[in-house]
Each structure stands twice: as C-alpha cells, then as structure tokens.
Amino acid sequence: MLRKNIVIFALGALLLNILACIPVTQTVVADAKLSVQPSSKIEVGQTATISVDSQNLQRNLRYQWRTDGAGVCVPQGSYETKYQAPDSIGDLLEKKVTVAVEFYPNGKPLRLSTELTVIPRSKVVENPRTTAAPPQPISELSPTPVMSGKPTIEITRPGVFDPLGDLVGPGMIKGRVSGVEAKDYLVLLYSHTDRWYIQPLDTGYGRFTPINDDNSFSNNYHVGAKYAALLCRMPCDNPPTRTAGLPINDPNIVAWTIVDGVRTKN
C-alpha cells in the first residue's frame, strides 16, 4: 500500500512539473479574442471601441494596436482602444479595414486581429418642399483663385518607429502638399506614443511647420509609433500640443494623413 501511494505521489508531482512547463501564453491565446462595440460596420469619421477579452487576461501587459493604413487607433498602449475611421473612402461603397493588436505575455508577442467595414455616411433625406437656391456665378462663390485638384498632404519621409517616444529622431520628417497656395497654409506635425504630441513644440511659427515654395515641408521630431501631418488653412487657432484625438474636425484642417513609423533593422 505504501509503495502504491509513493507511485501515485510521484506521478502527481510529474504532472505538476509538466503543467508548470506549459507557457502562460498558450492559456492566453486559447481564450483571448477581440470584441467590437457598437458594431464592426461603421460610417466614415465614426469610432468603434475594440478591446481584448480573456478570462486569463493580465491587465499590466504591453499592447500595440495597428491598422492596415485606413483610420487610426487611440490609445495604442492599452487593452482597449478606439478605432477612428477615415473621413473618406472615395468612391468606394465600402472599405474593409483590419485592426490588429500585439501584446507581450512572457516577453513573446501575440497577435489578434479583426476586420471592420467602413461605409459612406448615411444620406439625409431632404425636405421636398425646400427650394434649392439657384447656382451663383463662380466669381461670387470663389473670390480667390481656384486651385486645380483638392488639397492633399503626404509624408514622404516618416519618422522612426519607437512607441516609447523618448528620443529625438535622426534626420527630419519630410512631406509635400498640393492643391493649395503654400503661403496661405501651414502644417501640423504629430507623433503618437500614449497620445498625440505636436512636433516640434516650438519653431519659428510656434506650433506650426511652414511650407516651402516648392510645396515641401520638413521638421525635427521625437520618435513615436505613428506620425500625422495636417494641412491647416491660415489663420487658425493654436492646436493642442498633446491630445488623445487629432483635431481633424477643425474647419481649418483641409487635409490630413497618418503613417506608421519606419522600423529600423537591429
């Protein structure tokens, strides 16, 4: 009987050792999933809350949210984020967007993703009794010269990817604008870590980056995970130096773009 008990105890100890060797990450992966509220189908410019759900979720993990280039996630370092859809999807009837998160239990990156559908904003039914005003001459509607094409802005040289944001980036962020008279506009540059921070805080134009005669712009920056450039019509009020959401709803912001930081090889 004693020998039998010893054997059972030894087998139990062996089983406990085997279980102890199973990485915690396997338990997290097995039941972790992404939930989307209120819906995975949202209109342009709207937001959806996406969170990592798991019975075994450790709240102190490190997270990094990403999109496939359309829209942005804020914040990026939490188990829950708000995805903000782009303001336009062009002539598309809908646009599929993949939102993914990486988190790092036991130092090993794990990735979950979900697909959202961005659709045009619902059209408001007009009052049939309302009489539309007759079209006015172009000279009255547009007292200033009309530029060919709509205003656009692009980042041609993004900053370095670093979600901690402690360092001054090597070189400069560079970009171009089109469709506007450069002298009438300025650029706002932001980098994102735990929130959006204006780059740099103090230039000759305060919080703004000037546009060169050839429609290019450049400035120094602190590193981040993502970078944003906003085209601002003058005059406009000083924007926030740090913010959870970019001031893209400001009527003086005529175009904007967001890009991921460039990952350097170790």
Topology:
Layout: H1 2-21, H2 24-31, E1 33-37, E2 41-43, E3 47-53, E4 63-67, E5 72-74, E6 80-84, E7 95-103, E8 110-119, H3 138-141, E9 152-157, E10 173-178, E11 185-192, E12 196-199, E13 216-219, E14 226-233, E15 242-243, E16 253-260
Parallel strand pairs: 2-8
Antiparallel strand pairs: 1-3, 3-6, 4-7, 5-6, 7-8, 9-10, 10-13, 11-12, 11-14, 12-15, 14-16
CATH class value of the largest domain: Mainly Beta
How many domains, in number, for the residues? 2
Structural class: mainly beta
CATH topology of the largest domain: Immunoglobulin-like
CATH level-two architecture of the largest domain: Sandwich
Q: What's a quick, concise take on this entry?
A:
The chain contains three helices and 16 strands. The chain has helices spanning 2-21, 24-31, 138-141; strands at residues 33-37, 41-43, 47-53, 63-67, 72-74, 80-84, 95-103, 110-119, 152-157, 173-178, 185-192, 196-199, 216-219, 226-233, 242-243, 253-260.
Plain-language structure description:
There is one protein chain. This protein is mainly beta and 266 residues long. It has two domains: 25-119, Immunoglobulin-like, CATH 2.60.40.1080; 149-260, Sandwich (Immunoglobulin-like). The chain contains three helices and 16 strands. The strands form four sheets. The protein has a five-stranded antiparallel β-sheet with strand order 15-12-11-14-16, with no helix packed on it. Strand 5 (72-74) and strand 6 (80-84) form a beta hairpin. The longest helix has 20 residues, at 2-21. It is globular and about 95 Å long. 26% of the residues are buried.
